[in-house]
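ok so for the tutorial part 2 we go from a plain amino acid sequence to predicted structure tokens. step 1 is just haveing the sequence, like this:
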Amino acid sequence: MSGKKLTCLDCGQVNRVPAERLAQSPKCGTCGAKLMSPKAVEVDFDTLQKAARTDDVPLIVDFWAPWCGPCRMMAPEFSKAAQALSGQARLVKLNTEAHQKAGSAYGIRGIPTMVAFAGGRERKRQSGAMPAQAIVDWARGERGQGVTGPTAPPKENRPGPDRTGRFFCSCQAVTEEPSPWCPDRPGYTGRSHGH
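step 2 — the prediction. this is what the tokens look like for a chain of 195 residues:
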């Protein structure tokens, strides 16, 4: 049977969809959920693993956390990009605080981090908040290699979380000093990122 394999992000069932129907809101044959949503979809770790290794359509993952200021700023932009890429790629979000094992499994050191998967492999990654058009350009390959470009380095050569397992906001890459809401800030004791 020909067609593109897509994992249902609701029930986990693998579906085959003819390529010409990807932009026509195909639905899961098991549960009826949309397979190509024009919105960014929140996923759990198990669903992400299955979709990343199975799907034939590019999968763009936003690794984020609710306490991360840049993550919250990027959330509406990521949703706009999902709509612009509808029918071409699926955009999903994974909360690294709720699914902490995802950080070590995918070598996430800073958030927000986007990782593009295609053909069962990681193709590229980008850390830091980006506006919607930059996300679209990155996904399509208009800023460097596209999701069908070269593969990422082997997992053993990628950086992982620090020895305590903490994840840091991308603000550290933007400023010399950690932002007041970063857990890396000296004297930080809480988990909340109040502004």
